[in-house]
Write a structure and sequence with these properties.
2 copies of one chain form a homodimer. Chain A is built from 13 helices and 12 strands. Chain A is α/β, with parallel strands linked by helices. Chain A has 2 domains: 142 residues, Aspartate Aminotransferase, domain 1 (Alpha-Beta Complex); 232 residues, 3-Layer(aba) Sandwich (Aspartate Aminotransferase, domain 2), CATH 3.40.640.10. In chain A, α5 packs across α9, α7 packs parallel to α8 and α11 packs parallel to α13. The first copy, chain A, starts with 7 loop residues before the first helix and ends with a helix. The model of chain A has no long low-confidence stretch (mean pLDDT 96). At the A-B interface, α3, α5, α6, α9 and α10 of A face α3, α5, α6, α9 and α10 of B.
């Protein structure tokens, strides 16, 4: 290219919500009160036992590189967590600690995907997923999902969309932006369908723990051949620490390890020591209280939005998002989000960040703020929309 | 592939030194005393003012995501550092804070390199560089460098090795594993040569600050079109925190920012707040004392190795490495390194990790340990080799 920028950069898009966020900050700086329903991270701080463990690590001089795959103690703690929480045995050797789930996604895609090969994923979905594939010169086939499948991929989708060049399918449960879960039966059928095609399933479980009805079962209990991505960001409240993990099948351990060495050297050392406290009973108690709080927020916001006229056909069971059809109010959700911000001071994320499946008819509401703020947001929306 | 692993993984190699390091740890566990000259990170802890700033940030709840390109205050602090230290004006907008220099390398390569395009780099060189190119389906042309060019690339190399498919040249000054510098004139000639070919130069400056004769001039003073990689790891003693930065030309800001959003979300928040203290006078005083200590170690180890019969034709002026020709003792440096470890308890890195240019004749000695340990190491080598 004449400007010297690699071609992939034409296809990689910035987060559109950033412009809205910047405008929201600008309005706040001018003294306007803004209700933030656009932010995809918990408003809670990191639980104090984790913070204290991080501080203790810094005081103890734990500031040097760890092994590329992470501290042995942390990999064991994660394995124990699977054992205690889900009754599943995962060898610590299969667990690779990464710089956030972002690092885990890069590793997973890079060990699996050849140039020209395709990844199937749900549309709407987490925006970055498709750009990891693009980075590696792979392709993404975004499958438009609807309420009929709870916005999740199903084995039927595999029948319809799998091509000879498809190598990977990627699902997230609970999902961003819809908050919906894959049922255990649905997940099992999907695994069977993908594996029968000699493909590999990547399962994004970063919102595990933040589930309000039933329990999200880890894909690790259903197959030894899936790659599972998880994170200390969302459930454990450690977003800014940038720490996640990847579980790989036995035959991928060597590839994933050498890739981690070369791409990352290692994940953050203080974060890893801090995360050792994430599985302590006193931390889990804090996290459970937060989970209950998130559920209360959902139970407040969801009926509120529905009664205003937003259409949410599937009750979101996890994460902290409600993906709402706003076509009763607008056929251009981006302009509508701008309008809501300017007129009501309520900030939300327009559908455009999540794919090409009717984004202009959808808004994502994140309940990552207090019930009081949610109440204020609903009040403002009601006053404006009715 | 039948095993389901992407083809690129055949070409991406693990660090060979890891096997030696594991064996060294095993011997230590058995009670053997090991002199570690294989480790590529400072033995010093993070300076206390930086640690304290990190702790204060944790106490203040600075645990949420920062902007993708980093904290505004940190980008300004880095810009001020260029201004005060080198008298160079770099707009903070051009500075992108990354998860280590590793993150900066990934961004730099990804915004520049199309599949099939080539990166020129010195051989020997930092092992990961070529794998970032491979990840992106680019090619690496390793240029065998010798003492004739201080193991650095020169504009003559560009005349000989630049091909129609070459897009990027990458240099490091001071370099790993040779510790040599590019002169200001050499760097200027290289930039001119690369830019006249409509290519882009990436300059790895992560060992800036650790220079023992003269001063390494940043490439930012010579061109507005280079991409410069730097890090808080080596000079600032923050390896395990995983924090670096990338300076891009104006026309790359947008591409680098959206890529950082999608690949990383952001660098570690506690690390960024900690790094704000990296430029304080009390920190710089500590760092200067360490620089002097490193110089003393080099001035001790280098003549010692030479007098034992290791051939080091160019005096390393920076970083903390000595790349020594060991062909007087062995024509298989990997086996020789194993032998030295087993027989003398001295751990060094064999040349194989740094490329294909006579690796079997070279060892890298890192002076990342005390002068007492260096003394002990030399004593053991002398007793064994003579």
């Amino acid at each position: 290219m004449s400007d010297g920028i690699a071609r992939r950069m034409e296809d990689i898009k910035p987060f559109q919500v950033m412009a809205l966020l910047a405008r929201a900050r600008e309005l706040e700086a001018q003294g306007r009160s803004i209700v933030h329903l656009e932010i995809g991270e918990p408003d809670f701080n990191t639980p104090q036992p984790i913070v204290e463990a991080g501080i203790a690590a810094l005081r103890a001089g734990q500031v040097h590189y760890t092994p590329a795959v992470g501290l042995a103690a942390l990999r064991e703690a994660i394995a124990n967590w699977y054992s205690k929480g889900a009754g599943i045995t995962v060898s610590p050797e299969r667990i690779i600690v990464t710089p956030g789930a972002s690092g885990a996604l890069l590793l997973a895609m890079a060990v699996l995907l050849n140039p020209g090969e395709a990844v199937l994923m749900a549309d709407p979905g987490y925006p970055c997923n498709r750009y990891f594939a693009r980075l590696l010169e792979g392709k993404t086939i975004g499958i438009p999902v609807t309420e009929a499948s709870d916005y999740q991929l199903s084995s039927n989708h595999m029948d319809s969309y799998w091509t000879p060049e498809t190598r990977v399918a990627l699902v997230a449960s609970p999902a961003n932006p819809t908050g919906t879960l894959l049922s255990q039966a649905g997940l099992a059928a999907l695994i069977k369908s993908v594996e029968s095609r000699k493909g590999t399933l990547i399962v994004d479980e970063i919102y595990h723990g933040l589930v309000y009805e039933g329990r999200a079962a880890t894909a690790l209990g259903l197959s030894d051949h899936v790659l599972v991505i998880n994170s200390f960001s969302k459930y454990f409240g450690m977003t800014g620490w940038r720490l996640g993990w990847l579980v790989v099948p036995n035959n991928f351990i060597e590839a994933a390890e050498k890739l981690a060495q070369n791409l990352f050297l290692a994940a953050s050392t203080p974060a890893q020591y801090a995360a050792l406290a994430a599985f302590k009973p006193e931390t889990l108690e804090i996290l459970e209280a937060r989970r209950v709080e998130f559920q209360q927020r959902r139970d407040f916001l969801l009926p509120g939005l529905r009664s205003l006229g937003f259409y949410v056909p599937v009750t979101p069971q996890g994460a902290f998002y409600i993906y709402a059809n706003c076509s009763r109010f607008s056929t251009d959700s981006f302009a509508f989000a701008q309008e809501l911000l300017e007129k009501t001071g309520v900030a939300v994320t327009p559908g455009i960040d999540f794919g090409c499946n009717a984004p202009q008819q959808h808004l994502r509401f994140a309940y990552t703020t207090s019930t009081e703020q949610l109440q204020e947001g609903l009040k403002r929306l009601q006053a404006y929309l009715n």
